[in-house]
Design goal:
mainly alpha; two-stranded antiparallel ribbon; 46% helix; elongated
Amino acid sequence: MKAEATVRSHPGGAMLTAADYLAITPSAARQQWLSISGRSQPSGGRRQVDFVPVETLTCLAASLVVDHRRYGGSTSHKAEEPVPRLAQLFKRPNSSVLAKMANLDGSRSNGARHEVEVAARLLTDESELADIYRLVFQAARDVGITAAALPDFLYLENDQGPVTFLGQDEITPSEIAGVVRHGLANTLDELTEKMRTATIRVGQHRFARGVLRNHEHQCVFCGLAVAFEGRRTPRLLLASHIKPWRDCDSRERLDIANGLTACPTHDVAFDTGLITITPDLRIQVRPDLEHAAATNPGVGAAFGRPPLAEHLRLPAGALPPQPSYLEWHRTRIYGGDSR
């Protein structure tokens, strides 16, 4: 059954299947956007209309940017973009958009299984997710929905590549699998395992995105910040954990105060304990590396001062690293008291 026919015959969406989302056609997507554009705001306690596939797919894409778990019923009005813009376009409250995100990641017990299937499939296939995102957004543009009403929040409309999941180089498939299966005696069913894997990858992406934003996309050790034609190039910067992901609990893995933005050279140096950070945020260099930087121009080009700063380069208003994470790094990775 094609999505176009399903939406016409079953406005309530009760008979939708995963195929209606994954095999959506441009004509079906345009029809759905037109139905959204023709809505009026529900009033007087009237029940909202059910989500159509383009809304659900857009909410799934937005979950890469916004963590719905940060907001409850009394705080949904504080949700960051693109949630308010989507709510306005869909003629729904913020809480409905956030609830749909919860349905998609399986955190609501009454969510539809086919939506979890769609999320698990797309969040583990960056190319397919990008293709469907572009199809949905092009259909919106075709019917007159502008970027002001529906911003390209994944920056993919003019980019033919896959979705970029940030921070994935910091975690290995075996580490993810270990967390997914931790504490479970029985083998998970395929969908649950796939969704849990996707949730970990998305969480790592949001963490890395938050760390980069917190440091205004510049290396906290040397200040490197690269942009071409006004677009940042995140692959020239890494957002990594201070206390490594594999050693963290679930809260620590998502805490941006446990993250640093660094260029590849200084990221590796920090991860391997060649440099560390003191309680007063001074950048400490191992004596042998400091000597090499003073005597070898090549080493000095990376670890001399400059380019290496004396203290961590944090933008005004940035959330500083949590002292407990810094202490963990100094004692467990750098290997001793660096005060």
